[in-house]
Amino acid sequence: MSEEQPSHSEKETKVQRSWFERIGQALQGELKDRAQLTVVLNEAHKNNVIDHEALSMIDGALQVAEMQVRDIMIPRSQMIVLEMDSSEEELMNTVIASAHSRFPVVGDSKDEIVGILLAKDLLPHLINDTDKKFSIRDILRHAVFIPESKRLNILLKEFRSTRNHIAIVVDEYGGVAGMVTIEDVLEQIVGEIEDEHDFDEDTFIFEHANNRTTVKAITPIEDFNKHFNTQFTGSEFGTIGGIVMNALGHVPKRGESVVIDGLKFKILRSSSRRINLLEVTTKLKRSDKEATKSTDAEQH
Q1: What is the pLDDT along the chain (300 residues), one digit of tens a residue?
Q2: Are 182 and 209 members of one domain?
Q3: Which of 133, 164, 190 is the last residue of a domain?
Q4: Where does the chain show beta strands of DSSP type E?
Q5: Are residue 288 and residue 225 in the same domain, yes or no?
Q6: Pairwise CA distance, residues 217 & 204, whole Å
Q7: Quick one: DSSP state of residue 265?
């Protein structure tokens, strides 16, 4: 009597078990370097043991251990700060316009960081109608300073242990080089983190006032052209993010901008590998147009 052949599901279970065993061995130190671990993980992905998102997160976690703060920090020039002597109205306007929750507060310059203001700490003072004079110093929190060379995995541990979610980055001379948040670190692992200001997954373009539009970088060229009445070609780049990156010549950081065919594109969100979100301005100021002409002249 012939032996019963194992079913397809039993074979699949054995394959998955073998890959889990190999991954377990890798985590126990039997593999010698990261390259070998990467091979095992990629093979596990090909055999449907782990999905693409899990693979990306594992790869992101491995990269974080090798990256430094300077690799992901928001540079000094792009920091949104509050000035110590600002009025309540000025403070509130900046908080609303930026939609951020934490702000460095500066004195005479960005090198003089007085403290950190949390938007939630500001609101009660603006809501309560009292005659008491408001002082921003009374609600400031201690600012944490870190070097550009700090490893991201170490910074993440410190963020978690201290429950602090923002740090000021200083250079070797003690000057402010930029800032970094816990969200910036986590996005290296899990990808772009959406918040309450993001629009629906199926929506690519969102209109604002003052000729400003928020556009996802993955917006197809055809949809972008239809909305803005432009004539970008998608033969080489299928998305508007590809057009912008090509015009800049590199993967841009948040805050960078470029003018293409009369439209100003500002980077709202990006990672070390791609652009995520853009702000498009359709009617440029005179200064923007002059800057564009100057840039074109230099290129030619």
Answers
A1: 455 555 545 545 554 555 556 555 555 556 667 777 777 777 877 887 777 777 777 777 877 888 899 988 888 877 889 999 888 788 888 887 777 889 999 998 888 999 999 988 887 776 765 556 777 888 899 999 999 999 999 999 999 999 899 999 999 888 999 999 998 888 887 765 555 445 555 678 888 767 788 998 888 999 999 999 999 986 667 889 889 988 998 878 888 899 999 999 999 887 766 788 899 998 665 444 444 433 443 434
A2: no
A3: 190
A4: 74-75, 82-83, 102-106, 113-118, 145-147, 166-170, 176-181, 205-207, 212-216, 257-260, 263-270, 275-281
A5: yes
A6: 8
A7: E
Does 211 fall in a domain?
Answer: yes
Residue 149 burial by Cβ neighbours in a 10 Å radius (0-12, 13-18, 19+): exposed
Same domain, 178 and 218: no
Decide if 179 contacts 144 (C-beta within 8 A): no
When divided into structural domains, the chain yields a total of 3
- Give the whole-angstrom CA distance, residue 185 versus residue 154: 11
Question: Which range of residues forms the domain containing residue 86?
Answer: 70-190
pTM of the model: 0.57
Kindly report the number of other CB atoms within 10 A of residue 277's CB atom. 20
Q: Are 150 and 69 in contact (CB under 8 A)?
A: yes
Burial of 91 (0-12, 13-18, 19+ CB in 10 A): buried
Residues 6+ apart with CB under 8 A from 50: 41, 44, 58
